[in-house]
Amino acid sequence: MARNHVERLGEFRDILVATRREGVRNVHHTRDAMRASGFQIGDSEGSSYGAELKVLQEEIEAVDRAIEDEKRLALALESAAQSRRPTKPRIVKGT
Questions:
Q1: What is the pTM of this model?
Q2: Looking at the domain assignment, is residue 89 inside a domain?
Q3: Is 92 among the domain residues?
Q4: How far is CA 78 from the centre of its chain?
Q5: What is each CA distance from 67 to 42, 60, 79, 84, in whole angstroms?
Q6: d(Cα 6, Cα 44) in Å, to the nearest integer?
Q7: Owning domain of residue 8
């Protein structure tokens, strides 16, 4: 079950990364188009995306932490399950 959670979180992370990349691509595309049209573009153009980029990056990092947490939980559950498994009695000969 935890593996399923990790996979879903990974897919969600992929969506966030794609969104971040698309946003950066759009900023550059818009700046290039404005320059090509003769607009004077300052260094601050596109910086309004910076706030959105920061939020996206924080979300990506939160998902990364969630993935690591799910992996730790899966290991802990697996370890607990193994410790509860009955062990076969050892047969000792000649005592």
A1: 0.70
A2: no
A3: no
A4: 23
A5: 40, 11, 18, 26
A6: 38
A7: 2-39+46-84
Number of domains the chain is built from: 1
Is there a domain that residue 93 lies in?
Answer: no
pLDDT score, position 3: 57
Q: Tokens 């062990």 — which residue? A: 87
Q: Residue 17: its pLDDT value, please? A: 97
Q: What is the pLDDT along the chain (95 residues), one digit of tens a residue?
A: 555 999 999 999 999 999 999 999 988 888 788 878 887 766 655 567 888 999 999 999 999 999 999 999 988 888 887 776 666 667 777 65
Q: Are 35 and 46 in contact (CB under 8 A)?
A: no
Residue 14 forms part of a structural domain: yes
Query: DSSP assignment of 1-26, as one string?
Result: -HHHHHHHHHHHHHHHHHHHHHHHHH
- Per DSSP, the three-state class of 59 is helix
Q: For residue 15, which amino acid is it?
A: I
